[in-house]
Each structure stands twice: as structure tokens, then as C-alpha cells.
């Protein structure tokens, strides 16, 4: 039975008298630190002495070096997953360490003798702050990895509540389930959807449709985004009522045309690599080598001509972007 946790089941007061050390002041770190403080929690931000620390101090936080977190009662580790194992982490035996992703726990990259848990927002870092301020909150995945003190669950839920992560409900997952799901979205779902979009662009170009019009359909109009919004708010079946009869007939009568494509097998292979830890080994080796292949991939995917093409298109059509 899947366990769904609601706000009423968590008490922020569990953390009364406890100091929370937030390691990292990036996407998640800044949002967590601000949300925790606004929820009445005593926060110290532990970061290297660089512009991140300046930002934390400008936001009014007490700061320390990374190893300063070892004095805290609760330590929220909010830096990239591949960097976490390199931290000078020696928490007290009665401390609680919380990660925002199951990755390091699932693949044995973080072995600590204290309470260890996971609060993984299903939300981009800066949006964690925005959703908190708007009062909507966001869904999280929560999990307990190790409970030494008997208070791991209450402390994990208190932190989840304090950042706004129980307002829409939380799903209890093991770190392994969370890590496989999270990486599968990135490595199986996203590339498959990208491949589908590329095929669509190719077929439309062959029919003489201008690229501007194709990209408008895919992203610029916002129609796809808003349709997914309706799927979220009303359900996939209910939102069909907003599509014309021609559209409904076309979508449903052609749904089986792609059934023979064996996307599942390719996805299963990618997910096997994740679950077996082979991807984590590969990513560690990439980190140890100084990220050469990542840089090669970034140079190709974010080449100046691609960025310029996208900027030009977006200057002509669609809503002006607002920074998150
Ligand atoms: P970021 O890339 O934004 O983290 C940046 C922070 O990490 C900075 O404070 C940076 O410090 C610090 N950092 C980076 N490298 C090092 C290093 N070698 N030593 C010490 N500090 C370092 O990370 P995110 O916020 O994106 O991710 C944090 C966690 O949240 C991860 O576990 C991730 O999986 C999880 N998560 C992220 C989501 C997202 O949307 N981004 C969504 C849900 C979970 P400095 O400025 O000093 O370099």
C-alpha cells in the first residue's frame, strides 16, 4: 500500500531547539534555507567562501564552512549528487542527515552512522521557494533510510512540512525507488519524448511546413503546456472534452498506430543500467576524470548557433520569458 503523508501528520515543533545546517546554497539550498527560516527554524548555511556564501549572508543567514554542518542537529545536504560523497561529513550519532534525492543512498555513496532520510521535492529548486510563498507548496517523495534515534520519521516529516513539501501531500518511497524513478524520467522518458518531437519536426518539414510554425505547435504557443496543466488539474479523460470532435476522433482513432514501436525494450535497458548501479559507476568515473564527456555533450547540445536560433525564434513569437 502506497503511503501518502499529509500536513496534519507532521509537527514542525519536533525541531524546536534543533539547529538545521543547510549545505549548499544553489537551486534547492537557497529555497530550503529561506523556507525553513520562514517556518521558524534556526538555520545555518554551510558553504564554501565564495559568491554563494556572500548571497547567503546578504539574505541574512549565519554561515560557516562545509564542515561547520557537523555541529548541527539536522543536516540538509543540497549540493550535486556526485559531489556529496566528497564532503567532509562527520555528523554526531544523534544527528539527522537529509538528502533531496535518493541517489547517494540508493547507490551506496553515503554511509553515515546517524539518522538518514530523504525529502525529495518534485519541483525545480527556485520554484520550491516560489510555491512556498504562493502557499501552494508542492509534492515531495519522503523516505527513511536509517533510524538510529527513533526520531528519524518525525524529523524528516517536520523538514518536509517546513519547506512546504507536505501541502500537496508526500509519497513515501524508499531512496532506491525515488532514485530509479527520478533517473528514469531523465534517461528514459525525456530522451524518448525528444526523439518523438524530432520525428514530428522531420515529417512536418518534409510537408513544407515552416519551422516557426512547427516549433509553435510543440512549445511556443504554450498549448501543449496548458493541455498538460488541464491533465493535471482535471484528469486526462476529463480534459478531452475541451478538444473538438475532429481532434478527439483523430487522437483516439490513431492511438494504436504507434503500438508496434518497441520503446519499452529500450527503456528497460536504460532503467536496468540505473537500477544495477552501472550508471552511478559511470557518472563517478566521469566526475573523477573532470567531466570531459559531459562537456562534449554540452558543447553539442548547447552550441552557440542553437542558442542563437532559439533566441531569435522566441524574440518573434510567444510569451516573453520571465526568470525563475
Ligand atoms: P546545485 O547545483 O544548485 O548546487 C549548488 C551548490 O552546491 C552551491 O552552493 C555550490 O557551492 C555547491 N557545490 C557544488 N560543487 C561543490 C563542491 N565540489 N564542494 C562543495 N560545494 C559544492 O544543486 P541542486 O540544488 O540542483 O541539487 C541539490 C540536491 O537537490 C541534489 O541532491 C539534487 O538531486 C536534488 N534535487 C534537485 C532538484 C532541482 O530541480 N535542481 C529537484 C529535486 C531534487 P559553490 O557555490 O560554493 O560552488
Provide structural commentary:
The protein is an alpha/beta fold. Helices cover 48% and strands 12% of the residues. Strands 1-9-8-7-6-5-2-3-4 form a 9-stranded mixed β-sheet, covered by helices on one side. Helix 1 packs parallel to helix 4, helix 6 runs antiparallel to helix 7 and helix 6 packs antiparallel against helix 10. The two termini are 36 Å apart. NADPH dihydro-nicotinamide-adenine-dinucleotide phosphate (NDP) binds next to helix 1 and strand 7. NADPH dihydro-nicotinamide-adenine-dinucleotide phosphate binds next to helix 1 and strand 7.
Please outline the helices and strands:
Layout: E1 4-5, E2 19-23, H1 27-38, E3 42-46, H2 51-58, E4 62-64, E5 74-77, E6 96-99, H3 103-106, E7 115-121, H4 125-134, E8 140-146, H5 152-162, E9 170-172, H6 175-206, H7 211-220, H8 223-234, H9 245-253, H10 263-275, H11 278-288, H12 292-301, H13 304-316
Parallel strand pairs: 2-3, 2-5, 3-4, 5-6, 6-7, 8-9
Antiparallel strand pairs: 1-9, 7-8
Helix pairs in contact: 1-4, 6-7, 6-10
The chain binds NADPH dihydro-nicotinamide-adenine-dinucleotide phosphate (NDP).
